[in-house]
Amino acid sequence: MLLKGKYAIITGGSGGIGLATANMYLEEGAAGILLVDLNKENLEEVKQKINNDKVHTFVADVSKADQVKAYTDKAVALFGQIDVVFLNAGTEGVVKSLTEYSEEEFDLVLDVNVKGAWLGMKYAFPYMEKNGGSILITSSVAGVRGTAKMIAYTASKHAVIGAMRVAAKEGAPNNIRVNTIHPGPVENRMMRSLEDQFAPGAGAEVKKGFESMVPLGRYAVNEDIAHMAVFLASDNAKYITGAVHMVDGGFSA
């Protein structure tokens, strides 16, 4: 019961990592969870899968300030407090050389992955100042290394590390801890998209190539990431802030 009595927001709530984390938070005693995502149908499907009255949903675009404020206010209206914010919403963008990337494609990735994280912290901080809490941002192995043809995604995942470090220092006086989680390749929709983009029609071969780069020899499953999200949200991590946490099977080693 590592999260007994805690209330959480999870963005990207209908994705594989979001769903796995919500289930694990409930197993660890979370008192309430607000799942946030852009797609209403996907959110409803996830809510039915979880089938727990402690789970609520909210449709929002994390790159829009008014919608981020709205989901944050909704969480407070539901729960009276916010203890954990898992800023997990993200987009992989397209796989193209930097010279072929359009401004619109670049802006979309930065808006969701970077602006979405900043706005999530901006509106959560005031509600967390009294009791403290934990904010987690999903970055990636792409946040610590470069990958050709992924200029926007790689830049965005590097950027959230800087945002996290600033927020950790600003949040520390009020015991608001801020950390990043860095998955390697994960068995979920995003990796299927990237595999197919790198080699249309030959995604399975791309997967084999990625797996060969992972010392532990496999992709992560969503629950591997959720375990880290539980730990960092819990009081067992009460002295951990401003840090980068790799969950990549040794990929970045």
UniProtKB/TrEMBL annotation:
Any one Gene Ontology molecular-function term assigned to this protein's record: oxidoreductase activity
Keyword Secreted carried by entry: no
Record-listed E.C. numbers: 1.1.1.-
Annotated Pfam families: adh_short_C2
CDD domains recorded: SDR_c
Record's keyword annotation contains Oxidoreductase: yes
Keywords from the named record: Oxidoreductase
Family per record: Belongs to the short-chain dehydrogenases/reductases (SDR) family.
Name of the featured protein: Levodione reductase
